């Protein structure tokens, strides 16, 4: 699933290419009985209304909120796009032949095999198209009144953005402590705690901060949490600088791969030697249904929490016994 750097890369591309253009038409083949009655374009009836609100409007700009793309229109409405597992936007000239959209240019990154699953197309006033490729068809698209942004379910429960300029270490620690007893790997990926971090980047920042993914938040000493805060910002900014991670499906709006996958320290490197030359080999474990990659040599699990919780429970029992 595209994470913060991939979404930001996409937003930057949208602002560079489609900002100020008018939408002249919109097409989709998203249709699902499961989505009948729901407010997204996979519901055919909803898509008909979506078309009315979108066609002949101008794209005034895009921004990112967590893993969501917000595309603002000049009619006071905003399109929300969540790329989910395999979705990504593509910009260029397309032609529809026998129900299939294909790039007009024969020699183009848009022809990458991962770019051929087109399920949504916006025709633009400059003759180009903004297409959405989505292999597994999990993408989510709907429209809302921009003024109601704070009441949108997909946005209202998101935690703070780790790359906000005013996001301090104190803010970071406060956010993590909302799930103080949680495993740090899972807590980092909880979108209600921090918005935008997923599997790839959580592995990389925990490796850089020398933290075992199973360590509980409350057990991690302040000095190490500060290290994690510092590395988190570096890892995410590097993800953006290198155009995102294309280890799987992600491509930028020009159809090109990002290069962050070439700089992985641990993600999907099970069995390889740790780059720190500490003699460790990268291991993989599953936490809450998601994989975690780490070096057992320098990312040793912090056990303080378990003993801390036992002492705390013992003290509570003692007090209850004393005052019974």
Average pLDDT number: 93
Number of domains: 2
Radius of gyration: 22 Å
General form: globular
Profile the largest sheet.
4 strands, antiparallel
In percent, how much strand structure appears in the residues? 15-25%
CATH overall fold name of the largest domain: N-terminal domain of MutM-like DNA repair proteins
Which architecture of the largest domain does the CATH hierarchy give at level 2?
Alpha-Beta Barrel
CATH first level of the largest domain = Alpha Beta
Structure description:
- By secondary structure, this protein is of the alpha+beta class.
- It has two domains: about 5-155, N-terminal domain of MutM-like DNA repair proteins (Alpha-Beta Barrel); about 170-310, Helicase, Ruva Protein, domain 3 (Orthogonal Bundle).
- The chain has helices at about 5-15, 45-55, 155, 170-175, 185-190, 200-210, 220-240, 305-320, and strands at about 25-30, 60-65, 70-75, 75-80, 85-90, 95, 100-105, 120-125, 130-135, 140-145, 285, 290-295.
- Strands 1-8-9-5 form a four-stranded antiparallel sheet, with helices on one face. Strands 2-3-4-10 form a four-stranded antiparallel sheet, covered by helices on one side.
- Strand 6 and strand 7 (about 100-105) form a beta hairpin.
- Helix 1 (about 5-15) packs parallel to helix 7 and helix 6 (about 200-210) packs across helix 7.
- The longest helix has 20 residues, at about 220-240.
- It is globular.
- The termini are far apart.
């Amino acid at each position: 699933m595209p994470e913060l750097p991939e979404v930001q890369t996409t937003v930057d591309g949208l602002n560079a290419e489609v900002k100020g253009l008018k939408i002249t038409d919109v097409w989709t083949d998203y249709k699902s009985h499961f989505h009948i009655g729901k407010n997204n374009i996979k519901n055919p009836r909803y898509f008909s209304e979506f078309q009315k609100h979108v066609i002949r409007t101008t794209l005034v700009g895009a921004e990112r909120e967590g893993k969501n793309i917000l595309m603002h229109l000049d009619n006071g409405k905003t399109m929300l796009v969540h790329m989910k597992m395999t979705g990504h936007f593509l910009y260029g000239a397309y032609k529809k032949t026998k129900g299939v959209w294909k790039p007009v240019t024969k020699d183009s990154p848009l022809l990458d095999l991962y770019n051929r699953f087109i399920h949504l197309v916006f025709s633009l006033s400059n003759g180009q198209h903004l297409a959405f490729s989505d292999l597994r068809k999990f993408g989510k698209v709907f429209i809302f009144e921009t003024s109601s942004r704070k009441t949108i379910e997909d946005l209202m429960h998101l935690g703070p953005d780790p790359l906000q300029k005013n996001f301090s270490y104190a803010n970071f620690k406060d956010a993590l402590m909302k799930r103080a007893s949680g495993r740090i790997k899972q807590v980092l990926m909880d979108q209600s705690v921090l918005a935008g971090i997923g599997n790839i980047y959580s592995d990389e920042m925990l490796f850089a901060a020398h933290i075992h993914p199973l360590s509980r938040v409350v057990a991690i000493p302040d000095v190490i949490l500060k290290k994690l805060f510092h590395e988190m910002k570096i890892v995410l900014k590097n993800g953006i600088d290198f155009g995102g991670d294309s280890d799987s499906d992600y491509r930028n709006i020009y159809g090109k791969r990002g290069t962050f996958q070439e700089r992985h320290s641990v993600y999907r490197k099970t069995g390889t030697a740790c780059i720190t030359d500490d003699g460790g080999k990268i291991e993989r474990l599953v936490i809450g249904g998601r994989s975690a990659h780490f070096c057992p040599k320098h990312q040793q699990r912090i056990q303080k929490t378990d003993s801390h919780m036992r002492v705390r429970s013992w003290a509570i029992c003692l007090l209850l016994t004393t005052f019974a």
